């Protein structure tokens, strides 16, 4: 089976965005702030938004299951305060839960957290636990920069984040390290901020001994790991300068990279440089890059094509990238699948 570990509900019914706009307007003028209960989205609206979009493309391209989380650029943790994020995260997570209930064979949830700049990450734990225990979610998206491009939070190995890590280890869930919208004009959200953050998260882990404190902690670095695979020699050299162990032993028991790299040479490089055990199939479909590549005539984000066309990968490697690795990294998903005979 083919598991896409990186999908977001980018096609949610328009009512969601309208509600959010009112919530944001309500920060200036509380008289227009909506209640959570004012958002009404019917099951048919959800069905339509999925069947015509993500599910249609999954069927067309040949993937079976997507780990599905709220739209990343809409998390916008920098807006408002903790209460703003808490209400918004609860709404977005519940919608993803409903998608997974309506299409249990094709979608399984991952949670966004109600992060807010300057607020103790401990405040995210009730929402996290609800999503895992009540909704059956199998992962979280952790934003290393809730300020939206200003990087005001401590780096990931700082004890600031430990409450989240302790809960992740306890619940056996990985975190995709995923930023949200950039409100810093220097960084385009999906073209720069996302890739910067992927690279930054990796380097923060490299300079630290985080995984000595949490040997079973699991991070998924999306978008092919940002600049990491391309500059693997630099990272190995820096680790050596810093007297860290070899990267294999220092980081690769705890960090995985996804395949959201939208061209063949990129996928070839990723799978040549990074051990296949550390690569997870993903497309981030329907996401930031929706067009058709004029050089191939296929969608840029149809990442399965690149893996299929690879002359580097064996069938065994492809199995690991499509399914085997994901079952190890997302043990709750593996158990949920086995419970359904898959
Ligand atoms: Zn994403």
Strand order of the largest sheet: 4-5-6-7-8-9
Identify the CATH architecture: Alpha-Beta Barrel
Which structural class should the secondary elements be placed in? alpha/beta
**Beta fraction:** 5-15%
Task: Name the CATH homologous superfamily.
Answer: Metal-dependent hydrolases
Report the biggest beta sheet as strand number plus sense, adding barrel if it closes: 6 strands, parallel
The top level CATH class name = Alpha Beta
- Elements, N to C (H/E): EHHHEHHEEHEHEHHEHHEHEEEHHH
Q: Output the radius of gyration.
A: 19 Å
Total tally of structural domains: 1
Number of strands: 11
Q: What is the count of helical runs?
A: 15
Calculate the terminal CA-CA distance, rounded to whole Å.
9 Å
Domain Amidohydrolase-related: 3-331
GO cellular component, one term: cytoplasm
Protein name: Amidohydrolase
GO molecular function: carboxy-lyase activity; hydrolase activity
